[in-house]
Design brief:
By secondary structure, the protein is an alpha/beta fold. Helices cover about 35% and strands about 20% of the residues. It has helices at about 5-15, 30, 35-50, 65, 85-90, 110-120, 135-140, 155-165, 205-210, 230-245, 250; strands at about 20-25, 55-60, 75, 95-100, 105-110, 145-150, 175-180, 185-190, 215-220, 225-230. The chain has a seven-stranded mixed β-sheet with strand order 4-5-2-1-6-10-9, with helices on both faces. It has a three-stranded mixed β-sheet with strand order 3-7-8, with no helix packed on it.
Length: about 270
């Protein structure tokens, strides 16, 4: 059984930053047995990433409501996350604060002032992972994505990175109507352009390029292999690949991304 001390040591061994923004996607089952179960793992993560001023976030997505045409798409009081156990534990934690994105909300932990600023980003966005929302804030803050027992097909930030780069065939042309039910029971209606083409299934194909350019630090959290991923570097690698390819590689080809598209010198922006 892993203790809180063990989990913190694993994060320390990875040199995970303690004063940055870190967003976690996870498979709780893959971590193995932890003292205090999921709540014990969550407490260790919160302590490590926020004790020295960092901001920790978890996805608390409700996009399944959009797919199933259910309203509200986000219920601030009763809405559950559709992306895993640790996500829902984070949502239920007394110190968490939830952003108001109608399909891709987050649970946020950390300094109150920084948390206020972070959460405000999602109050008026018009795409699922807008560069002007909380996923964009991870990029703007030179933050990180920590994947615990999952791969890049769960790395939601990559949708945002592709939107920053301006890739085609990623977002619906016409918006859908989404709704947010607030604490006072009022319903806010919004319009949202959403992800199309299930492109996230292709995201593991970026991994070789990310590794070549030093975007990933490997480690373990409990039994789970973990990848600490630099948000800015990942965006730069994606930008390089498409600048060289001149077309939509992930949607138009099969197999690995050709090495010529990411190896060699590149002037980052």
């Amino acid at each position: 059984m892993y203790t809180k001390t063990d989990i913190i040591k694993h994060l320390t061994d990875m040199k995970a930053p303690r004063r940055s923004v870190v967003h976690i996607h996870s498979s709780l089952r893959s971590v193995g047995e932890v003292e205090g179960r999921g709540e014990g793992l969550l407490d260790a993560l919160i302590e490590y990433f926020t004790a020295e001023g960092g901001t920790l976030t978890f996805p608390t997505h409700t996009w399944v409501n959009l797919i199933e045409n259910k309203h509200p798409t986000l219920d601030v009081v009763n809405g559950k996350s559709c992306v895993g156990t640790l996500s829902n534990l984070a949502l239920a934690h007394p110190d968490s604060r939830r952003t108001l994105h109608p399909t891709h909300s987050m649970a946020v932990f950390g300094n109150d002032f920084l948390t206020d600023e972070f959460i405000a980003c999602d109050n008026d966005v018009h795409t699922s992972t807008s560069p002007y929302g909380c996923y964009g804030k991870i990029y703007d803050s030179f933050g990180y994505i920590l994947l615990i027992g999952v791969g890049h097909d769960r790395n939601t930030f990559l949708h945002c990175a592709e939107e920053i780069v301006g890739l085609p065939n990623r977002i619906s042309e016409k918006p859908a109507e989404v709704t947010v039910k607030h604490l006072d029971g009022s319903i806010e209606k919004r319009k949202l352009r959403y992800h199309i083409n299930n492109v996230h299934h292709h995201y593991p194909r970026y991994e070789a390029a990310f590794r070549y350019h030093g975007c990933i630090v490997d480690g373990f959290i409990g039994d789970a292999p973990a990848m600490l991923c630099d948000a800015v570097r990942m965006k730069q690698v994606i930008e390089m690949i498409y600048a060289r390819a001149g077309k939509d590689v992930l949607l138009e080809t099969e197999g690995e991304i050709p090495e010529k598209l990411y190896k060699g010198w590149w002037q980052t922006k």
